[in-house]
Every structure is written in C-alpha cells, then in structure tokens.
Amino acid sequence: MKCSKDGEFTQGELSPYGNIQLSPSAGVLNYGQAIYEGTKAYRKEDGKLLLFRPDHNAVRMKLGAERMLMPSPSVDQFVNAIKQTALANKRWVPPAGKGTLYIRPLLMGSGPILGLGPAPEYTFIVYASPVGNYFKEGMAALNLYVEEEYVRAAPGGAGGVKSITNYAPVLKALSRAKSRGFSDVLYLDSVKKKYLEEASSCNVFVVKGRTISTPATNGTILEGITRKSVMEIASDQGYQVVEKAVHMDEVMDADEVFCTGTAVVVAPVGTITYQDKR
Ligand code: PMP
User: CATH topology for 142-273?
Assistant: First the structure.
C-alpha cells in the first residue's frame, strides 16, 4: 500500500516475495523514518489458523507512526493486510506445536527527501516467514547479560515505539554478549543505570512470591502485546501485577524472571550476569 504525506493509504495487492525499489534518497534510508510490527499466525490442532491480537499491533503502529511523523494505515486496512498475508501463505504455517508463521508489517518513508524532513511518500508492506524458536535454547532457561555501557533508549527518544532506529544501536551490545555465550542482553535506564528496562526484543517480568513486577512503560521501553496479555492472565490467576521502576536489586533477588514477546513468547530466565559497575 502507498500513501502521500497527507493522504490515505490505497488498497494494496499481494505479490511474490522479492526485492523492492527505493530512491537512494528515500526517507527511510537516510533518516530512518520507519516502524515495524511483528505478529504470528498459529496453526490450531484442527488445522485452522489463529492470529494473535493483530488489532493491537495496528493500534501500536498508529501510535508509533504519530511519533515518527508518518501517516499510517487504518486499523481495518492493517488487520486485513495481515489476514490476507497469512491466508496467502497458509501452506507455510507449520503444524500445531512445530512453529509459527511470523508476519512482519513495515511502514516506511519511501519517498525521496534530501534535507532532513518527513518523506513525501510512504509505503506499507507486510511479509511473512515460517519460524521456530527464537532462542537457540528453545524453551530452556535463558542466560542474560546486564549491559552497563550501552543503553537502548533515553527519555524523550523513540524507545517506546517500534522504530527501526531502536534496533541498530543494540546490535553491538547484543553481538558482544552472544559471542560470550549469553542468550540476550538486559538493558538499564539511561539516567541512573540501576533500573531494569527490557531485553533486545522482549519485555521482562520479575516474580517475588505472589507479586509480579514489570518495568512501567514510560516511553523508553516497548509496550509489548504479549506483556499486556501476560499481565491480564497473571492478574486473573490471583497474582498482584505491578508496573513500576524495577531496581536491579529486585531483579537479582527475584524468585523467578521471565521474558515475553511475539518472537520469544514466554521464556524463562536461568541466570543473570550483572557486574554492577555503579
Ligand atoms: N521490546 C522490544 C524492544 C521488542 O522489539 C519487542 C518485540 N516486539 C517486545 C519488547 C515485545 O513486544 P510484543 O510482545 O508486542 O512482541
């Protein structure tokens, strides 16, 4: 689907996966004007497909688009595009319990712009790929490293939305941790560097007794759709669910820590390496 700066998205079409053409001065290539989403199609035991809350992804994309000064598809256009992509790729959705079809909606400033400013034209694409477990550990416990040098997001930045600009800066910390044998990185707040934020592509929960705490979404962490679902389920199960600034002392003293996200689903944490260089 395409759209001008002040216009509305027109109906798109399905096409085989392949390269797309962009101007070298496309806003996305030069100024990172793009946001994406991630959702999954699951195959149920009866063979039918199930999408996980795509309307929530649509709303989050709208909020993200506002932050990045982009027009966005309507909730209906977004959800229809997800459904059509899932149906067109039906044969690639693995059998129940054997994996999922990961669906990636991407909204970008595709029009040319030389001076810093919003692109004159926008493109919304949805593509998909079958996936298995996100971590090589499968569903086994993760081994996390607390990053104290690099931060993921700062107050007032774009950490609260799924902007592509949030991901390149964490690659260095993540690949360094992975080369040392860790599964992922835990990021700290950029101001005091003693409060938990999130991992590279998932939210984090800390369990102590019957209380489950998770960092509040204050603009520097992503408001995960899995996070929201887990909070609802945990509260229905009688846990006290608290959104707050979670101090690293509480993380290290927790009974249990786990991560949530579309890709990781719900992943238990086994060990956390925290050098505490404060
Ligand atoms: N934080 C970050 C930085 C992420 O990239 C993701 C994945 N979208 C999440 C948290 C989890 O969000 P969700 O549950 O919506 O996938």
Answer: D-amino Acid Aminotransferase; Chain A, domain 2 (3.20.10)
Look at ligand 1, atom 3, and give the residue with the nearest C-alpha.
Answer: 201
Nearest-CA residue for atom 9 of ligand 1: 202
Least confident of 139-143, 155-159, 174-178, 226-230: 139-143
Q: Single out the catalytic residue among 44, 48, 136, 162.
A: 162
Asked whether the predicted pLDDT for residue 137 surpasses 80, the reply is no
Ligand 1 pocket, 198 CB below 6 A?
Answer: yes
Question: What DSSP line would sit under 131-182, residue for residue?
Answer: E--SSTTTTSPEEEEEESS--S--TTSSTTTTBGGGTGGGHHHHHHHHHTT-
**Read out DSSP for 117-131?**
S--SEEEEEEEEEEE
Any catalytic annotation for residue 162? Answer: yes
Atom number of ligand 1 nearest to Cα 262: 16
Backbone angles phi, psi at 227, to 5 degrees: -55, -50
220 touches ligand 1 (CB under 6 Å): no
- The pLDDT value recorded for residue 276 is 79
How far is the C-alpha of 253 from the C-alpha of 272, rounded, in Å? 11
Residue 261 CB–ligand 1 contact under 6 Å: yes
Q: Would the CATH topology of 2-131 be identical to that of 142-273?
A: no
Mean pLDDT over 105-124 rounds to 97
Return the CATH class of domain 2-131. alpha beta
pLDDT in tens, 204-228: 999 999 999 999 998 999 999 999 9
Please give the ipTM for the structure prediction.
0.99
